[in-house]
Amino acid sequence: xxxxxxxxxxPSRPESRGNNLDDVRRNNLSAVLRLVHTTGPIARAQLxxxxxxxxxxxxxxxxxLLSLGLVSESLPDTARQVGRPSPVIxxxxxxxxxxxxxxxxxxxxxxxxxxxxVIKRIRYETTGVPAVAEVVNVVSAVVAGMRDExxxxxxxxxxxxxxPGLVRASDGTVNxxxxxxxxxEPLAQLLSDALHLPVFASNDAAAGAVAxxxxxxxxxxxxxxxxxxxxxxxxxxxxxxxxLMTGASGYAGELGHTLVNSAGSLxxxxxxxxxxxxxxxxxxxxxxxxxxxxQIDMLEQTLLARLADQPDRDLLDVIDRQIDFLAVxxxxxxxxxxxxxxxxxxxxxxxxxxxxxxxxxxxAGSAMTGPREAVQITRASxxxxxxxxxxxxxxxxxxxxxxxxxxRA
Length: 409
Description:
- The chain is α/β, with parallel strands linked by helices.
- The chain folds into three domains: 14-91, Winged helix-like DNA-binding domain superfamily/Winged helix DNA-binding domain (Arc Repressor Mutant, subunit A, Orthogonal Bundle); 95-207 and 386-404, Nucleotidyltransferase, domain 5 (2-Layer Sandwich); 220-381, 2-Layer Sandwich (Nucleotidyltransferase, domain 5).
- It has helices spanning 21-39, 44-51, 55-67, 132-145, 147-153, 187-195, 204-215, 275-278, 281-288, 296-307, 313-337, 347-354, 356-366, 369-374, 386-401, and strands at residues 42-43, 71-74, 88-91, 95-102, 106-113, 117-125, 155-163, 166-167, 174-177, 182-185, 199-203, 224-230, 233-240, 243-244, 341-346, 376-379.
- It has a five-stranded mixed beta sheet, with helices on both faces. A five-stranded mixed beta sheet has the order 14-13-12-15-16, with helices on both faces. Strands 1-3-2 form a three-stranded antiparallel beta sheet.
- Helix 1 packs across helix 3 (55-67), helix 2 (44-51) crosses helix 3 (55-67) and helix 4 (132-145) runs parallel beside helix 6 (187-195).
- It is globular, with a radius of gyration of 22 Å.
- The two termini are 25 Å apart.
């Protein structure tokens, strides 16, 4: 398994890093590729400024990345440009990762290239809560159907797995995914055996935090809390000083089990009144007359339409109750972690969308004076691609860390 360190600004004079020339070149090559990966199209001149390397060194590094098929290069539109144009470098689409996200009623499989480019996203609906064996079978069948395309157009470097549960960082074992009914399941190893690829696993909310930090609203934010509400409950991911917090064994960030109601319902974790037992989709779906399988986009669309058309008191009560309990959890996060940004995804993003001022005012009115002044609360920006982009990053990290290990065939 890998630990994802979110990229900071490249230090000055990177040539001095490393124990020998090979280490120096590897570090420099990695730094240039990371900038292209996270920044998007970037001019060679900007790469030179950002890295502190000289122009000829950057040119040689870009040349190597081009030969590896990890980037492409083009000249910019010169219509409005004065002087000699600087070539623009873009992340390539050859090196890809498979991304897998199992849920209560489906298995989502994605194909993602460097730069967070989502090439393909397939949602395979299951007839019920999928067992581990079913997930492996579904993924194997989908990948087999993509085999010709994968073999002729791409280089698959690995698999990223985002699971709604507790995932052990050392080997990708799912210790507990309560809503899926999984206990001590070696899912990463089973997928690796089936696909003959390395598999890197993480909690789904942690993967979401990585995705938003690299490509979403969290770009440039050093301290961030990400909370996602889905069919499998509420998960969290924490970014501290630019790095994903994993804890001793990879379980950090379980903010869904923050106490928000001392007289609340019993949670599967054994405690009472956890956030994910008090803020759930079911009461809102019931108030709207929607099925449990309703997707987030349809839930939001229906809810906004109902609120615009004289909503009934029962619906407003459900929203108010959930906003108030969510505010308690966010207050705790603000006081304890002092984040710069709180990002809400999934169902929680919908709650923010329909009552932004109420939620922000509730947090500001109850959090401590110092921490509350620094924090902003916003919605995740990557939509349905968020978790597959975050999962893919787990596998793509090995390319970013050492690009020369992945030559063209």
